[in-house]
Structure formats: C-alpha cells, structure tokens
Amino acid sequence: MNFKRITSDPKRMNGQPCIRQLRLTVRRVVEAVALYPDRQELQREFPELEAEDIREALAYAAANLDDKVIELVPA
Q1: Which of 24, 54, 61, 66 has the smallest C-beta neighbourhood within 10 Å, fewest atoms?
Q2: What's the predicted TM-score (pTM) here?
Q3: Looking at residue 40, which CATH number applies to its domain?
Q4: Which domain does 17 fall in, by range?
C-alpha cells in the first residue's frame, strides 16, 4: 500500500511515522480518533489534520499490526 501522507525523518520525532512532515505522529492521530469520536471536536483540537490524514493514519496502523490471537482473561 502506498502512503502519500505518511512521512518518516530520523531528524523529526525520532523517525516515527508522521503526517505530512508535521510533528504529529501516526500513533497520536490514532489515539486522538479514539479520544475524540466526534470528528468536529477532533478538528477543533487538531485544525491542521485533514480527513485524508486520518484515513491514511488508520490504514497505516492497520497495515502494521500483526494478525495474531491474544488470549483475553475473563473479568
């Protein structure tokens, strides 16, 4: 998969994957989507973030997860 909005530079954010050369990591975007389910609130908090940035950050995160089964302990 080709990610046009995900960049990585060893001199920026320790080489972590970022959105469009910004100091906004993919990890932070994924976390923000979880914390701000209302996209308008998310947009107010991160005005530099575009809808395509969010889509690509989620796709990048999904592409880099292992498909392994993790046993969950019942509560």
Answers
A1: 66
A2: 0.82
A3: 1.10.10.10
A4: 6-63
d(CA 16, CA 71): 29
Kindly give the confidence (pLDDT) of every residue in the chain, 75 residues in length, as a single tens digit, with 9 standing for 90 and above.
Answer: 799 999 999 999 999 999 999 999 999 999 999 999 899 999 999 999 999 999 999 999 999 887 777 788 887
53: which residues sit within 8 A by CB, 6+ positions away? 5, 19, 20, 29
Tell me the angle at which helices 26-35 and 51-63 cross, rounded to the nearest 10 degrees.
Answer: 110
Task: Determine contact, residues 43/51, Cβ cutoff 8 Å.
Answer: no
> What's the length of the chain?
75
